[in-house]
Amino acid sequence: MRMSNGVKAGTAAVWLVLAGATAAGCSNTVDGAATCPGCGAGGEPNFPIGRPTVSPPTVSPPTVSPPTVSPPSAPAPVPPGRGDTLPPSSGGFVFIETKSGQTRCQISEQTVGCESNFTNAPIVGGEPANGVEVTADGHLRWITGNLGAIPTTTIDYARYHAVGWTIEATSKGTRFTNDRTGHGMFVSTEEVDVF
């Protein structure tokens, strides 16, 4: 059988079956009685109504490993105090910065050198000196230069000891006295005195 629009007879039959199923209606229920094998005659299946209880998971405490600590290359800054001894670096130097932040110094057994913006500094090499150094014997010299990125300890207005020197810091300036010779210097941005 051939249809006028070119559809074959087999395809038309499929369409007719589908149309008949749609007209008859579809149902999602099945006729019959529920049975439970092993429940006895005519018994209904038995399902639990409540939620099952679940035990909480067992959690073990975490294991903590001690932290790995690397030794510092320079000594850690000492908190401000009265009469503290400031430890030297591996090179034998103690590096300090005054509480005002205006002066930094490098201290060794033989010398103390300080860097600051001095108001009345002499001219050295055509430029105003920004550094001054005193030896343990009391010899003073003015310098131009920079101490660089030294690992300073900021000191408070107090007394300290470092590699054979006594340091007395006040709001007016800092006095360095060599413990062996009694010589040294007083340093502030306004003045430097040697003794």
Automatic annotation (TrEMBL):
Signal sequence, start to end: 1-23
Biased composition (Pro residues): 54-80
Keyword list, A-Z: Signal
Region (Disordered) location: 47-88
UniProt entry tagged with the keyword Signal: yes
Protein name: Lipoprotein LpqJ
